[in-house]
Design a protein that fits this description.
The complex is a heterodimer of chains A (257) and B (14). Helix content of chain A is 15%, strand content 45%. Chain A contains four helices and 19 strands. In chain A, the strands form three sheets. A nine-stranded antiparallel β-sheet of chain A has the order 6-2-3-4-19-18-17-11-15. A five-stranded antiparallel β-sheet of chain A has the order 5-1-7-8-9, covered by helices on one side. Chain B contains no helices and one strand. Chain B has one strand at 12-13. Chain B is an all-beta fold. The chains are: A alpha+beta (257), B mainly beta (14). The A-B interface holds A 40, 43-47, 124-129, 208, 233-234, 250, 252-257 and B 1, 3-14. Strand 10 of chain A pairs antiparallel with strand 1 of chain B.
Chain lengths: 257, 14
């Protein structure tokens, strides 16, 4: 028996909106510690890892570990039917082939339940070691989204370079080139507008903008995004999900030609 | 040439 009640149901709506274009089908893993997911895009170049810790739910009952295979587009369709301020409850029986999403309005005057069929999904989990990164950039998520969107009108790839001077995003295409440099800015008055760069060593890596743009669908979840880089390793683009967890996107760097 | 490696080049299956 699984029953997860999330007062901030709008968070789950935003999580699904940020996943559904990258991954078609995925297993949500439910355990005593939380509600999580690890899935790759169809080309196995990008991976998303989601964790919503059990403490973040108003009520969290998970009698035994369960894996719920869901089509993320269909799950997003159902969650779109919830209002942003609805309380969302996810329910499933151990042997059931369906999951129920219950939406309650904040004053309890409207209660809806949507039942969705589950799927059997063969998924391969990758072991992601804890890594020390050469550079970690924390910046406003909307700024990062704007940069990825702007650069993708000019080129297909972005070179992210971190030096003491700041973080540089560069692209090149048929019509020309573009470079955007963001300098460190502690923004003490408005921490959500800060750009903080922790650098052990300068690092420069190239990534496909198509995936970066997909990751920025998570922008409504958090004011800040963290971009962690090391030479010859996948980048980690992380958005915090309120106080309850995170959504992390991993993207393999392109090999320089 | 495809210069986009897959994630399996970096992370092993669990």
């Amino acid at each position: 028996m699984l029953e997860l009640r999330l007062v901030q149901g709008g968070l789950l709506k935003k999580v699904l909106e940020s996943l559904k274009d990258l991954v078609n089908d995925a297993n949500f893993d439910c355990s005593a510690s939380g509600f999580s997911l690890q899935a790759m895009d169809s080309s196995h170049v990008a991976l998303v890892a989601l964790l919503l810790r059990s403490e973040g739910f108003e009520h969290y009952r998970c009698d035994r570990n369960l894996s719920l295979g869901m089509n993320l587009n269909n799950m997003a369709k159902m969650l779109k039917c919830a209002a942003n301020d609805d309380i969302v409850t996810i329910k499933a029986d151990d042997a059931s082939d369906s999951v129920t999403f219950m939406f309650e309005s904040p004053n309890q005057d409207k209660i809806a339940d949507f039942e969705m069929k589950l799927m059997d999904i063969d998924s391969e989990h990758l072991g992601i070691p804890e890594a020390e990164f050469q550079a970690i950039v924390r910046m406003p998520s909307a700024e990062f989204a704007r940069i990825c969107k702007d650069l993708s009108t000019i080129g297909d790839t972005v070179v992210i370079s971190v030096t003491k001077e700041g973080v540089k995003f560069s692209t090149r295409g048929d019509i020309g080139t573009a470079n955007i440099v963001c300098r460190q800015n502690p923004s003490i008055d408005k921490p959500e507008e800060a750009t903080i760069i922790e650098m052990e060593e300068p690092v420069s890596l190239t990534f496909a903008l198509r995936y970066m743009n997909s990751f920025t669908k998570a922008t409504p979840l958090a004011n800040q995004v963290t971009i962690s880089l090391s030479a010859d390793l996948p980048v980690v683009v992380e958005y915090r999900v309120a106080e309850m967890g995170y959504i992390r996107f991993y993207l393999a760097p392109k090999i320089e030609e | 040439a495809d210069n986009q490696p897959r994630l399996s080049a970096f992370f092993a299956p669990k």
